Every structure is written in C-alpha cells, then in structure tokens.
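Input sequence (245 aa), recorded before submission:
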Amino acid sequence: MWTDELSTSSDFRFLTNYPEARVVAAALVLMNRRERRGFVRAWLSEGVPAVFRENPMVYEMLREWLARNLAMDLETRIDPKDVTLVGSARLGYSLAPYPRFGRPFGADSDLDFALISSSLFDAVAIDFQTWCKDVKQGETKPQTAKETTFWPQNMRVIEQQIRRGFIDPKKIPNRHGYRSVKRLNSTMARLLNVISAAPSAPRVRSSSVRVYRHWESFVSQVCLNLNQAIPRRGDLPRSLFGSNY
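Predicted structure, token format:
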C-alpha cells in the first residue's frame, strides 16, 4: 500500500525546519540509508539556510547573483535553484565529525556553496586535466613552497573527487590557462565582497563553491560525509531516543 511506501523505520516528527544539533545527532543514529538520503534532500539542500532564516530574500539574491555571474563569465546556463548553501550555515552548526559536530556558525565560519551543473563540472574537469598535463610537461610550475607541497596532493584528491562526481575548484591554481577555474574562483572572491556589503548578510571568513555533476552526486557525497559524522549511540543522552528506542 502507498502508506507503507511513506512509512519510516523511526519517528522523526521532532525534526523541525531548524532542528537542534542534539536532535539531528539522535536522528542520524536511528535513520536507515533511505531516510538519511531523504534528510539530505529535505534539510541540507532545500529551503532557506538557518543563517538566513530572518532574511530569506538575501539568500535568494545571493544565489541568483552567483548563478547569473557564473553564467555570464562561463557562457553557460545556471539556474539559481541549482545553487545551494551547505556546511554550518545550513542548519546553523557544523555536521562535521565529532568533536566539531554541533559547533555553531560564527564570524570565523565560511559560506560553503554547492553548485550542480554538468556543463560546469565538465569544464572544470577539463581544466584539471590540462593542469596535470602542463605540470607533467613543465609548462606550469609551482611558484611557492606551499604550491610545491600541496599540488601533488590536490591532484590525487581531485582525481578521486571526479570519480565521485564533484570537484573543488579552489584546489586548482588560478592561472590563465584554466579559464573555468580562474573565473569560478574570481567570482567567489567577488561574492565575498557582495556579502560584506550587505548589512543583513552574516559576517563570514570566506566563501567557497564545490561543483557537482548532478544532484545524485550531491546527495551521495553529503550522505557519505554524514556517515562519517554520525556519533555512537552511547555518546548521546538516552532521553533523546524516547521510550520506544
């Protein structure tokens, strides 16, 4: 019956629009795989993020600005609905593994955006391949000790990311030969200025964007991150689970 399809293995009515960290921690312990994917879709990709709950239109204007500027710079179409905010700004606290789980969003936090676009993903992947080729042939060389240290590591990480359907453009250098990466990173720097100039926007340390091939890649990766962050049931107060659990 259709009621069976809508049933869950647990009672999650305590998950409000902006649930407390302790409630989310307990819910994640109880959820099965299907329910966890639903949590990612409904709470971590849709709706107004907690840090914009008092000024939801500011959030909408920011992601519309980001989509419009990236579309113009990269000559592609990006729908604002394919731009979402993740990280501690989403629920108002971090979902990183303990002990950072539940750490409140603050002025030293970042605004972490996710952008879902197959065309942009492909463009950044091509820039990555070009960068790897240029480094191998000696046409592009590290200019600092930090680049010398991190470039090999970044290359390995991005190769793994591409296989999972996403890329962090900030791990690729801002050089003229890598047009999509350079314009993406430039746009994110400009976005930080836009945020700083908006009186009702949260004060943040920086902003970043991760590009996903499609929504399925987004849900799968965020679920993977949550799996690593789920606390042990014994670490949580028994009262969180109610008498039925």
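Checked by second reader. The chain has nine helices and four strands.
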